[in-house]
């Protein structure tokens, strides 16, 4: 409990200082993304309209290949839409320069990648610290230790990625995103490699960020996870097929089971 | 993306896969191929010179019917035309003589004033010979212009027409045809430039290395030569060729006996005694040793780099090999794709290598031709050495590809899959180096971490770049060392004024004689210092070779020119000793304060006798030329020549030029030649210029090599780190910072490479200079010297270029598909 208080303090400080309310706002209008692979055109997303206007815990649900990662990449200013517009924290990413887009990634959004993408030459601690350093946090060391603590990896902080299990690597990736302290957290299958107990712990941590004023977007194909969300967006073949609170209202993480 | 073959497939499947591999990295393959090609090319190009030079020499001597035997009458003696022919035809094996010709060879002087760009007075030799009549022996090769028409077998009224020796004309910038004035004020026309085989190479008045441009040889028909020399109907020389199967030694013996019987003072020499034959063939072997070492170094650098680059590409497939093993594929099948990388590089490298070799060989031949004009240069393709280089070119990349494959298939599949290629297999060293605490943010730490996590690869890359820098430092450092030796020599000669002229007298005159005094009285002459120059042989301490040296005695107290004493002291008084060149002291095994025994002439009444005297080594003078020994004029008593001079240092008067002074002493009695010291240092320059020009060709090749290696190594790094760079971009880091991490990583490698390169280069130069000192250039003391500019070039290539290569690759980082790179599940 003491940990949580400490995190809340530093976390909210960062959020308040940098952005305020508009900093977590996401607006997608008529967003379409197509890939051209030789003769074949793959439509990953089509006419997506999505608005997140306040700090929330949002789950994006859908089967494999439906466009979830693509969607996160659009919001995270990693990829550009074929048509339509993406606005994050009030900035139109379609019109932003590449420098503005980089600045957005640096100070507004944080990624937890489906494929982890850890730096093989850095230890767990250094990988996490990278998140704080990239966001230019002056209290990088504190943030790093806290984030490692939150994902339960403090004892393994001097190990290299190849010395960690898949789940442990995933937790390092999560801690790296947390350490950045950015107000929008984009988590791509953050529990994909985790057992139930660890998975729930991680979700708890993510949920706390949302309560502290961040927008947390969690992508998953696990319907059970969507039960704890404030809002569930269901994707199917690049279209939004459902959008609203989870059936039966938000549940507590302690009620989850898979 | 890992494409996993489901089942064993046919060759078509593997070929398709390899084709895809090739398409995605053909630039790398080409670039590595070119690196290898430069190595192979330089090796083959420089390594094959001995073969074609020997062939060219053989062909050139044969084309002009170089004599097999030669009879020279003692200096100053002449016989009537026909006398020598009679002697020769009388020998027992007379029938084995193929062609024979009498000649008249006399010394003179030439003033090129009427023909040359720069007027000069130089020693000359007139060779009276036959032009195109009878069976050929020692013919003139007319390089430019035309042969004198035979009608010019002139009467006294017309100007004689001949051929001027080509190298002299080149050196002095003389036109293809013109007129020169010889001693006595007589004019001689020349209708072309050319050379006879025995003059392909000749010794100058100061020993071999000063020959360039210092001796004017004129080939003239016999009759006009006799007139010019005031020897009507007389000759002093005979040359002959022998038929196939003749016993040269037997004929030589018979000739010697015959000339003795005829009461002629003469020497009989063979073709192999000729300086040109000796030097042209000896040079090849000595030079070849030098070029072999240099080209081997370049080849080693290129091979090492190619090896490193290929193994890095193949190592990137380590995980795929692991997956293949996990799927139970047989090892040979897994080896096919990575080995194909090696094969592709091998093929590119070998083909391009032949092309590079041709270019290098051609450049070498071009340089050589300009220094050594021969009628028949045969710079054909040398299959043998190319085959040798090609075998290496094929083997290196294939072995380079095989080693990482072997390393991957040796371990458990899971090890190969888990560790990938960017993280070395954990061991105590890498875990320890990987955890060394480093200052700064993670971003600034990352480059060093990358280096420390995989020291083996870092060292391999650094050694690859370092080898190229070694070659660069070696080549440039050799140039520096030569250059410094040349400058030191030049400075030494021109001490006391660069307008000094060395005037040689035809014999020994008292210093107060009218011959010497008249020189001083010439209006254009400002000052003279009389001196003595004598040939001596320094007898070496045990084990060392005796040296033929030139001793020059000047008044060290009063003369305007005196040598720099770099060690010991200026000798004074009659037993003050002498100053040796550092090289001579080293070769003789003596130091300052030791005694050296000279075998030298001493005047006895009317003639000279040889005797031996022990003299002190008082010090070392600053001239790198080994031949020069300097002493005080008081030593003259040792030679029985006190108060005598055969050499005068002449300085032009104020307001008169060097040429003015030279011209006004041209016709003075007793003067045989005058040589400005400025020309001597030019001549040293010229003597080394051949090696220098070829070194420059090598330097260019090596520079390109170093740049290519640096760039390639960085390119591979950028490719390997693509995923990490994408992650950094996802965290919003600007391109600048990401490039910065690569730059810093490269700088670490670059610094290591530069240190390796400088150290390796210095060791190599030292070794080369030691071998040069004994074989290729024994006459010059060349000390190791690496100029600051060379160190800067090495650092620029090793650090700046290596560090800047990522900047060139910034576009790749900026334009990469970030989502794609991040999506990949390795
Ligand atoms: N670079 C690309 N080129 C071509 N097609 C692509 C590319 N990236 C994604 N796609 C396609 O776009 C669609 C959506 O991909 P995306 O990665 O967003 O799916 P996802 O919902 O995240 O799936 P998963 O749950 O398996 O991760 C897929 O059909 C995919 O094949
Ligand atoms: Mg996905």
Fold and architecture overview:
The complex is a heterodimer of chains A (258) and B (826). Chain A has 258 residues and is an alpha/beta fold. Chain A has a domain at 54-75 and 106-255: P-loop containing nucleotide triphosphate hydrolases (Rossmann fold), CATH 3.40.50.300. Chain A is 34% helix and 25% strand. Chain A is built from seven helices and ten strands. A six-stranded mixed β-sheet of chain A has the order 6-7-8-3-9-10, sandwiched between helices. Chain A has a four-stranded antiparallel β-sheet with strand order 2-1-4-5. The longest helix of chain A is centred in the first third of the chain and has 17 residues, at 2-18. The two termini of chain A are 26 Å apart. By secondary structure, chain B is α+β, with helices and mostly antiparallel strands. Chain B has four domains: 1-66 and 275-418, no CATH class; 69-273, no CATH class; 427-493 and 678-826, no CATH class; 500-656, no CATH class. Chain B has 23 helices and 22 strands. In chain B, strands 3-4-9-6-8-7 form a six-stranded mixed β-barrel. In chain B, strands 14-15-20-17-19-18 form a six-stranded mixed barrel. The chains are: A alpha/beta (258), B alpha+beta (826). Chain A binds chain B through residues 69-70, 73, 76, 78-79, 98-99, 102-107, 110-111, 113-115, 117, 119-123, 126-127, 129-131, 133-135, 140, 158, 160-163, 180, and chain B through 418-420, 422-423, 426, 431, 434-435, 441-443, 445-446, 449-450, 452-454, 723-724, 726-735, 814, 818-819, 822-826.
